[in-house]
Amino acid sequence: MTNTNTEFKWNRKHLIGLQELSAQEIEFILDTAKGFEQVSTRSVKKAPTLRGKVVVNMFFEDSTRTRISFGLAASRLSADVVEFTKKSSSVSKGESLIDTAMNLEAMGIDTVVVRHSAGGAPKLLTQCINACVINAGDGYHEHPTQGLLDVYTMREKKGSLKGQKVAIVGDIAHSRVARSNIWALTKLGAEVTLVGPPTLMPAKVHELPVKVCYDLDEVIEEIDIINMLRIQFERMGGSPFPSVREYQRFFGLTVDRMKRAKSDIVVMHPGPINRGVEIESEVADGANSVILEQVSNGLAIRMAVLYLVNQAAANESKSK
Ligand code: NCD
């Protein structure tokens, strides 16, 4: 593992959000991930970095990419991985998040990767257990490893993020991905515009360090990177717009809209995609799309984060 940034010393044993990280810390994670990228290209995809460590994947909400990516990242670093899901555990019998985590810790775990519908759940865990805690998405709050893999992918495509015009489009109100993107991007010097209908903007949107626009056609010609979000129907009561067709007409990334965009625009989506709603299939699978590269890069990011938090924990116990 190589990281040319030797001046800096990482000392966080938890990763809860990107809002609290400095630009230097974010860049350090990205540089560390770059060093881990080559592990996945070897014929034996393993590094001994976390041998003897136990990582628990604790997912209280459904997930495909994030859960598999964390599991794979931990096993590529030679950790033992325990999979925990709400449905098959005693949580369905009423056991709380904290009790569950304390029982897991009694079995000697080192890291908990947690996804929960309540914003703040991972932070609460850090106060109750000694293990490292990594947030894999909490309510509408943050999804830091998604934010990191997004800026990593953008940096790979564009070099520096300074001055890049990034639009985040769609259901901002219910998106933890949007929040983690906003913090990482603005800290790294990008100009962020949130685009969507007023009903899908968060209440205090004007307090965020971003521009807000309610019309995708107004900005499509000038943006360098576009990050499309899924409409998170499972998180809302009623419908926030008259019809899905109407939404697609105003905010969908269609082949027609792409004709007006810069020829080298980078098209992103955190997944899962709703083809034909926020993005047309031809665009999702088209030459400007980096959607699958985001998924591949997620692995290197999660290896880096698992490595760094465990290293900080080891340094902490050495100094006690
Ligand atoms: C996102 C999530 O769960 O917040 N997905 C992901 O982790 N890649 C976005 C979404 O569910 O739309």
Would you spell out the secondary-structure blueprint of this structure?
Elements: E1 14-15, H1 23-37, E2 54-59, H2 65-76, E3 80-85, H3 97-106, E4 111-116, H4 121-128, E5 132-138, H5 144-158, E6 165-169, H6 176-187, E7 191-195, E8 211-213, H7 216-219, E9 225-228, H8 244-251, H9 255-260, E10 266-268, H10 281-284, H11 291-318
Parallel strand pairs: 1-5, 2-3, 2-4, 4-5, 6-7, 6-9, 7-8, 9-10
Helix pairs in contact: 1-11, 2-11, 3-4, 5-6, 5-11
The chain binds N-carbamoyl-L-aspartate (NCD).
Description:
The chain has helices at 23-37, 65-76, 97-106, 121-128, 144-158, 176-187, 216-219, 244-251, 255-260, 281-284, 291-318; strands spanning 14-15, 54-59, 80-85, 111-116, 132-138, 165-169, 191-195, 211-213, 225-228, 266-268. The mean pLDDT is 93. The protein has 320 residues and is an alpha/beta fold. The protein folds into two domains: 23-143 and 296-315, Rossmann fold; 144-291, Aspartate/ornithine carbamoyltransferase (Rossmann fold). The strands form two sheets. It has a five-stranded parallel β-sheet with strand order 1-5-4-2-3, sandwiched between helices. Strands 8-7-6-9-10 form a five-stranded parallel β-sheet. Bound molecules: N-carbamoyl-L-aspartate.
